[in-house]
Amino acid sequence: MTTEGDSKTSSDSPRSRQGWLAKCGIAIPILSVRGRHGSPQDPNRPVMTKADSPKKRKRVFSPSPSTRIPIPYTEPKTLDMAAVSTAIGATFDQALGDVKAIKKYCEKHAGLLKLENDQAWDREASFNSDPEEQHAASIIRAMREYERKIIFGNQASEAVPGKDTRDMGGQFLTNKDRIDHGSLLFQAARKVPKGALLHVHFNAELHPERLLVRARTIENMYIRSIRPLLTQNDLDETEMVFNVLDKDQVVQGVDIFSKDYSGNATNWKPPSPQQWEVWMPWTQFQKDFEKHFPGQYIDSQEQKIPEGSTSCSAPPEPGSQVPLWPAEKWLKSKMVLSEEEAYAFTQTVNGVWARFNQATRCFKGLLNYEDVYKWYIGEAIERMIEENVMYAELRPMLLDKSIPTNDGKGIVDNAAQMQLIIDGVREKQAFLEKDGKLNKFPFGLKIIYCTPRSIPKNLMQREMKHCIELKVQFPDLICGFDLVGAEDRPNHIGFYKDEFVAFQKTCKERKLDIPFLFHAGETLLDTGGSSDPKNSNLYDAVVLESKRIGHGFALMKHPLLVEKFKKTADSPGICIELCPISNELLHLCRNIKEHPFPELLAAGIPCTVNSDNPSLFSNSMSHEFYQIMVGAPTMSLYSWKQLARWSIDYSCLSKSQKAQGHKILDREWKEFCASIVKDYGRMMTGDEIDPEKTKGIYPDLKCQS
Ligand SMILES: [Zn+2]
Which keywords describe this protein according to UniProt (predicted)? Predict the structure, then answer.
């Protein structure tokens, strides 16, 4: 970037300008640098810049011969500048207060606003809004602006902010504690009826604490490392993986804390001769961990929630406050992306993805065995109900064709896994029905078949055939097909074009509906893992008629494709499953304010809000809704409502289920607005929060530390 001073050429210099003006018969005095300075008391006085320095001035006033343009000299006519200035001043003063002109300006301004408002993406959500909903909308807006200043403290000022000041909408993990304990807007976001959750990875819905505690009782749960654990450095650097195994096959007496431990990144895979020599029983590992690393990773989490207080006593997210044992606490740090890992100065896109993949591998074995599978479905549904999500489409990775039975001796194949999911849903729904709460989760779950984008074509063909077979077996469960993995790595979707076209043809012939729901545009490079922009997955997603896409972060780079995504009278468009917190933590943007969701929405593209990988990102659907609200000042209560509505419209539910979903959503929305007015309305004076009235409603500031 060049500075104003740097860009000055010889013809811009005061002296040459004077010569040029002189040609036009105007003479202006050259002000010295000193003369240009205002009074020292004047805060707006010009400060001497580099360009003003004597050295620089010399250069500016003495253009090099090569750039100097000869100006023919004519005798300047001298003007009385005082008279000119008086005349200009008089004309200007006379022009002030031109009521007609101001009125015209205001009309044009209002016209623009009205036009934009008439075309606003969320306008339908505000049609027929009743006074209570309007009141709730004004409370939500006022709370956001109050919290921006008071709870976060980011007020425009020349004073250097104190250490507790934060930017509302700044880095999510940095702000999370403040959001969770200081923000009533977040408490409101928790209550929002959110409709459907359309983008969440199967193994990443529950907090790791829950899975770790559950694993305590599994006798044949084993763990391996890619190096012996002898020092703190080993703890920091290693990667750990769980698995349920047949104890008759595992070699006894394996000790990960011995220097002779043989585990590495590859020798656990069959047909490695060491495959049974690298696993240590998890129960034994826990005991030995405390002996080898005494006093470390002690969980001080037994925070008692103060009784009777307001926001500080907001119930913690389920499972998030279970006290852990030291080895579990250490393992948790391997599963959850930390603030430092996400935001460190030297972190890279590939680095954070590698860390993310490592965390995913660590989770996998804790979840993928028969006993926990059905339990997990019930717990995941419970969490969704607490988040006011009424339906979800989960994305399991089904490349592995089986999970172990409880004893590790047998296998549960993909079809049996699907049956476990159906059984888990039915069981949960039976409980809900008994309590008269079936409307909280009336449609159960659907499954989007996922496979990695990195596999060879022959394996992809196997995967596609397998997906179609599962659809035949479980027509109401399997609802889509997707590729997963970092998009900056091979392969792009088009690499498998032959396979995808065959997939579509087979589905058509068999009258099966398996829409593509691709991850696409989750990248800054947008070259589909190559160096060629033509390989952007967004083109393929459009050609292959994706029903929705995951992320769509890069879409605004493609104005033509934007048109295809738009919802119009003739087309439902292509819905984008927004995952803003995921995008921030995986280095697509620094914070929510830099996320392109307002542009995507303003362009008329239907979007939904999603949590992607809550267990790894420490987020939830409520956090995502909160982030959307603070990410752009144009967001409102009606924006929340429109996003929830679209989540039903663009789901894979049937037409009648969607109609029923909307009915439930409308009813819950009314209740939500009433609760906002009831809980927070008394803080309002006019359209603003009155600080005098916040006592006893907003938490004490000490809760925010
Ligand atoms: Zn995803």
Answer: Hydrolase, Metal-binding
Ligand 1 centre distance from Cα of residue 201 (Å)? 6
Residue range 76-92, pLDDT digits in tens:
677 788 888 999 999 99
Q: How far is the CA of 567 from the centre of ligand 1 (A)?
A: 23
pTM for the structure as a whole:
0.86
Residue 383 Cα to ligand 1 midpoint, Å, equals 19
Least confident of 99-108, 138-147, 292-301, 614-623: 292-301
**CA–centroid distance, residue 581 to ligand 1 (Å):** 11
What CATH number does residue 497 fall under?
Answer: 3.20.20.140
Q: Which domain holds residue 291?
A: 221-299+312-331
- Tell me if 569 is assigned to some domain: yes
CA distance 380 to 81: 78
For strand 280-281 and strand 389-395, is the pairing parallel, antiparallel, or unpaired? unpaired
Structural tokens at position 118: 């008439």
Residue 320 pLDDT: 57
**330 is written with which tokens?**
């250490």
Q: What is the pLDDT of residue 667?
A: 98
Mark the residues whose beta carbon lies below 5 A from ion ligand 1: 612
Domain boundary among 52, 79, 106: 79
* Amino acid 572: pLDDT: 97
Instruction: Please check whether residue 238 is in contact with residue 226, taking contact to mean a CB–CB distance below 8 angstroms.
Output: yes
Compute the distance from residue 484 Cα to the ligand 1 centre, in Å. Answer: 7
